[in-house]
Write a structure and sequence with these properties.
It is a single chain. By secondary structure, this protein is α+β, with helices and mostly antiparallel strands. It is built from 14 helices and ten strands. It has a six-stranded mixed β-sheet with strand order 5-6-7-8-9-10, sandwiched between helices. The chain has a two-stranded antiparallel sheet with strand order 1-4. The longest helix has 21 residues.
Length: 376
């Protein structure tokens, strides 16, 4: 079984617009929110459905590819890890009726006179560096899960990095079973980076893993965007971010009603206050007709069709219920016929849906890559 292609040549020349997506990412604080939002984007093909976990798996594959050279620097033998287990020297002040090594003669004389009635010393002990071992345990367990999960879609990649990863997993199971697996902070990573091999190599790997969990722009633009099976979903989110940013720039207020992708939302995910008006903003608006309790012309027209039927709706719908609606259909493709013809068909259909009852006046636009849509 070969590797799955990471890119589609026909999309290689398209530059994903980032500004709107960056605006959206700043409102989130976990990678789970991004994965859920991406899974909420509906494909035109009813058979295409990607769960949040499937999208996370594709991002993990790209991350393993980026870390491959660092992973191959890690020890391939359990004994090498054991020989390099880090230790730290600790010192504690103690008072005793006998001299201690090393002695603190100045403090002893100042506190207990001369000859001293008691002795102050700073005995030292060597203990394992707990933070380094916690980082090793966390990294090994995370990499072990990633390699196991990614194997099905990238067996050649996993085969190349599997040996050092399994060696880490083995040493953690055998020697560090009682160590809590905790992600490192910046101080931990900086200390490891200056600790010599293999700990400096571990620091490079752990830094990438932590960044993938905490830096959403890195996750979106470095791990998800390179996979053109997914970048069209980022395009949808970028358009949504542009809408929200524009509302704010006009003095409007944005209120989040529901997270994106957390199950089928029964209503609009956002409410926007613009002047004296309260607007609904939908991301994937297929539930709008049911929510506004109006009959869908599409559902009525296709009742006799023997196929699985679902509601249709614009990718993004801005609606002042009963009055006005703005609908945006997002088309990420280098093919003008798909953006123009297919987009026109869908945008026209959404106008019919809107005029069925939830808006007296409606506008519908197709949003495509600027390399394809060169003028309005």
């Amino acid at each position: 079984m070969g590797e799955l292609p990471a890119t589609r040549p026909e999309l290689a020349g398209l530059a994903l617009p980032r500004r709107g997506l960056e605006q959206l990412l700043r409102g989130w604080n976990s990678d789970g929110q991004l994965f859920d939002a991406l899974s909420a984007v509906k494909a035109d093909d009813i058979e295409v459905k990607w769960s949040a976990s499937a999208i996370e798996l594709r991002a993990a594959r790209v991350l393993l590819e980026k870390m491959e050279s660092s992973l191959l620097l890690l020890p391939g033998e359990v004994g090498t890890w054991r020989e390099n287990m880090p230790v730290t020297t600790t010192s504690a002040r103690e008072v005793s009726d006998r001299p201690l090594r090393p002695m603190d003669w100045a403090t002893t004389g100042r506190r207990y006179g001369w000859p001293p009635k008691a002795f102050v010393g700073h005995p030292r002990s060597r203990v394992k560096d707990e933070s380094a071992l916690q980082t090793l345990a966390w990294t090994a367990r995370k990499l072990g899960r990633m390699a196991r999960d990614v194997r099905a879609i990238a067996p050649l990649l996993v085969g190349r990095i599997e040996h050092p990863v399994l060696t880490m997993v083995d040493v953690v199971k055998s020697d560090l079973s009682d160590v809590e697996a905790l992600p490192p902070d910046r101080i931990d990573l900086r200390s490891l980076a200056h600790s010599g091999r293999p700990w400096s190599s571990l620091a490079m790997v752990a830094t990438s893993l932590v960044r993938a969990e905490t830096d959403l722009e890195f996750l979106a633009f470095e791990l998800i965007e390179p996979n053109t099976d997914l970048d069209w979903r980022l395009f949808h989110l970028s358009v949504l971010g542009e809408v929200l940013a524009t509302v704010r720039s006009l003095g409007g207020n944005v209120r989040w009603n529901a997270p994106l992708g957390a199950g089928e939302s029964p209503g609009p995910q956002f409410q926007l206050t613009i002047g004296q008006c309260l607007w609904d903003l939908w991301f994937e608006a297929s539930a709008a007709a049911r929510y506004y309790q109006v009959a869908s012309p599409y559902k009525a027209a296709t009742t006799g069709v023997s196929s699985v039927q679902r509601a249709i709706g614009a990718d993004i719908l801005l609606c002042l219920p009963g009055e006005r609606a703005l609908m945006l259909e997002c088309k990420w493709s280098a093919f003008g016929s798909y953006v123009g013809r297919d987009g026109y068909h869908q945008a026209s259909s959404y106008l019919i849906e809107a005029r069925s009852g939830f808006a007296d006046n409606a506008w519908s636009y197709v949003i495509g890559p600027e390399e394809v849509v060169r003028s309005r």
